[in-house]
Structure to design on (174 residues):
């Protein structure tokens, strides 16, 4: 009688689907959430690049020349484009005039140990100046597992940096 009970127990399939689901659901859910977070990270990087391009155009066309609040207008131009997904208060930027385009090759992003961009000042330049615009953003990873894999700094944050180097237009006509 006991051997019949054991055989029936091994042949029974009741609850198998529930056990399989419970074992597989957590990894599948983590995979889906991780994929969504990585997609949002790439979207944030793309938004930052577009914001730098738009804000650089404001400098390139001379709209900031002579403005008392040039730095604030530049920050607003970045926020107008990327503020949909990114926190405008967390942008860090470095805008400076270069003597040659090749100087931009040696101008690595100066970042401290916490992942903050070292301030170099704000110099929007003038007519036909070569200008480098660099904007950084520390993107906070939301899921702990993905944050531990892709995070670079404390608090599971990833540093996004976008740089544009251009020559301002000859916007003053005689």
């Amino acid at each position: 009688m006991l051997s019949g009970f054991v055989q029936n127990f091994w042949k029974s399939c009741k609850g198998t689907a529930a056990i399989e689901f419970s074992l597989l659901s957590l990894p599948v859910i983590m995979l889906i959430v991780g994929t969504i977070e990585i997609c949002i990270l790439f979207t944030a990087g793309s938004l930052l690049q577009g914001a730098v391009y738009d804000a650089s155009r404001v400098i390139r066309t001379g709209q900031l020349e002579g403005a008392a609040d040039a730095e604030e207008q530049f920050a607003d131009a970045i926020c107008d484009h990327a503020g949909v997904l990114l926190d405008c208060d967390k942008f860090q930027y470095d805008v400076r005039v270069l003597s040659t385009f090749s100087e931009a090759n040696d101008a690595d992003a100066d970042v401290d140990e916490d992942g903050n961009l070292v301030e170099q000042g704000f110099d929007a330049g003038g007519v036909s100046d070569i200008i480098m615009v660099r904007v950084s953003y520390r993107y906070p990873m939301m899921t702990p597992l993905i944050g531990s894999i892709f995070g670079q700094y404390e608090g599971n944050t990833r540093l996004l940096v976008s740089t544009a180097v251009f020559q301002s237009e000859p916007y003053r006509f005689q």
In short: The longest helix spans residues 16-60.
